[in-house]
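Changelog note: in this version the structure field was regenerated for every chain. One regenerated record is shown below for reference.
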Amino acid sequence: MAAQGSAELVHLELRGRTALLTLDHPPVNVLTREVLQTLASRLEDVERDPEVRVVVVASAAERAFAAGADIREMAPMGPSAAHEHGSQGQAVTRRIERLPLPVIAAVHGACLGGGCELALACDFIVASDDATFGQPEINLGIMPGWGGTRRLPRRIGAARARRWILLGRSIPARDAFADGLVDRVVPRSELLPTAFELATELSAKPPVALAAAKYALLNALDPEVDEGLAYELDLWSRLFGTQGQKEGMRAFLEKRALSETPRADWDVVSAGFPWAVSSPDPPSGKRKKVGASGRD
């Protein structure tokens, strides 16, 4: 398998029995549609190659592993376009998760939003000591939509995941290690060598047994993952077009502080969300809940 040309957004290189996929969309590997499409294609290539035993995902960008989805691309979207876009992001992370090969994320710099969700889909995360992780989507008026609400609590526990997602803070590598997200933290110069050391150990294991063990673990940890991802995507896409999403993404693009979003017309804007009510004040005093699809 030959290395790809320099114009590629994701380089593919075979080092022994390890496939190295390197994100290369400067300056910070924003995950545009094209980057996601290219990554999906590279994952298909490595799965078809019988020589590959392990995959390492890394970054060619100096400042980031991946700084998340393209906010400029997403800002004008309504729920329908957002659902389509989110489906693409979920498809790539699910492809990584279901790849019958161990996948290691070698993370340096910013690993935020969709970039963090990309790392979460990997089996192992090795981080440099300058790495920062986070799910800052709440500051944009949305929430994680590429599997973060499903995989983060699975990986670090509900209480920690709640702090990460509801507060939207950036988490230094050492704290991410303490929370259980990261498997090892090393100096930047040792990042790829450490990832390849782990890959070499994994590549010596029987490949069918590795695949079976990976799938069994996934089933044990989250047997209803596809249903959960669909629920997440429905909520995520519904947030597009809300006042919070418009203001959050506008503030990000204009590089200014987020203005407070009022909680006005709550019953109107809640339509279709799982906390919505059938009427403002039902006679019984009990609020009738509806599903995320807006149906009973």
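Spot check on this record: Residues 79-98 form the longest helix (20 residues). The two ends are 52 Å apart (CA to CA).
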